[in-house]
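Standup, Tuesday
Yesterday: got the pipeline producing structure tokens again.
Today: sanity-check two examples.
Blockers: none.

Example 1:
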Amino acid sequence: AEAKKVAAVILSFQADAGGWPKNTDTISKAYDGDRAKLIPTFDNKATVDELRFMARMLNATKDETYRKSFDRGLAYVLTAQYPNGGWPQFFPLRKGYYDRITFNDDAMVRVLRLVREVATETTYAFLDAKTRASCLKAFDLGIACILKCQIVVDGKPTVWCAQHDEQTFAPAKARSYELPSFSGSESVGIVRLLMSLEKPTPEIRASIEGAVAWFEAHKVTGQRIDKVTDKDGKPNLVMVPDPKAPALWARFYDLKTGAPYVCDRDGIPKPQLADIGSERRNGYSWFGEYARDLLAKDYPAWKKWVR
């Protein structure tokens, strides 16, 4: 009964286009506002998790309401895919950076994992073979798009930007402080997805090896990030020299020099965390142990498996 209550609330937030909005509490209280204000997206885990939930509810209750919701949502996902295999952050398209092929916050990787699940897992056996085949086709097209987006330097595949141009596949800008760059964060999820492919082609293998080599070469070492209290009593992030600190990776690296940088809302890249204002310095994830487990665990396991 509790699940049905939650499901009713989630259903109320499904936009007319078929997807769900982000950053909204879609489980506590039903939506009774203007339907035109529900802006569906793939950002911040939206749409993907709701679809999984609808499939589970359908299997548990056999209630056609969930079937209709799922079918609309899946149609939304498949319609939103560009012919070249990429997904935008928002659909219907809104113009601006929302239309870029979006890896930011793992948006496209999540969608790809979903369509693969729908194509292959028994949870989705209620769908006909044709629909599941179209999901598999969407998945394969998405993987091909990922390979086209991978930034190549001196003939070697490296990593990805958080968003890429939907026509040229080139690294693209998003918000004022999110410049075209190598991404030390989003690229991790992409590599994990590629490592999960059952029969990796030589191109997929080269893509993974290239990205892993790039991560190895772009560690930020000898520094750690501390949260301190500044003179006004506000929390402040600072970089502190520490020879024993675990390796970090920057969110962004310069496309020409490969050097890590941070950026304020003025769009001017700066080398040090202390070089930007408090609002962005403390309001964004600039450094993290993003690729730690990828290098220490996932890649060695994949190497053993792929022989």
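Example 2:
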Amino acid sequence: MTTPPFDIPEYLAVVSSPIGRLELTSEGHTVTSVTVEDDGALPHDDLPRRSNDVLDEAAAQLCEYFDGARRDFSVPVSANGTAFQRAVWDGLSLVPYGSVISYAELGSNAVGTRSGRAVGRAVAANPLLLLIPSHRVVSASGKVTGFAGSQGVKIKRWLLEHELVAA
């Protein structure tokens, strides 16, 4: 068996959602990325789809989330990042459905720093949108700021409203 190039995922699925198409990738039995389309394009639009059981389950759980029938995800995930990024992402995973947290508060809880910029960069690098809920992080003033792609703030607002968060 040959090893595919680094940037080509082993498994790839695309799911339609109210916020646009979502690209799901996995290596083996863990989901490695969830990406929302940006300006109508996904990172691997040119590749053939090849799903597996974990992507099928992730797709089903995402559909349940958008239907309002799911608040938490139980698919196995694996994200490459620095120790700091992984600590921030672990902290994100603890933010409950329907809640928000500030970048500074997340940093203080997850990694012992209140540096909103450093935490913001780690949040922005989250490869597992929705499964690791980076949309639940807001500015210290409660303002909805940056998210994925050119429509990021609009998508983030939609997700927060979907979860009935007044932000």
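Quick observation on example 2: The CA atoms of residues 93 and 99 lie 12 Å apart. The chain has five helices and five strands.
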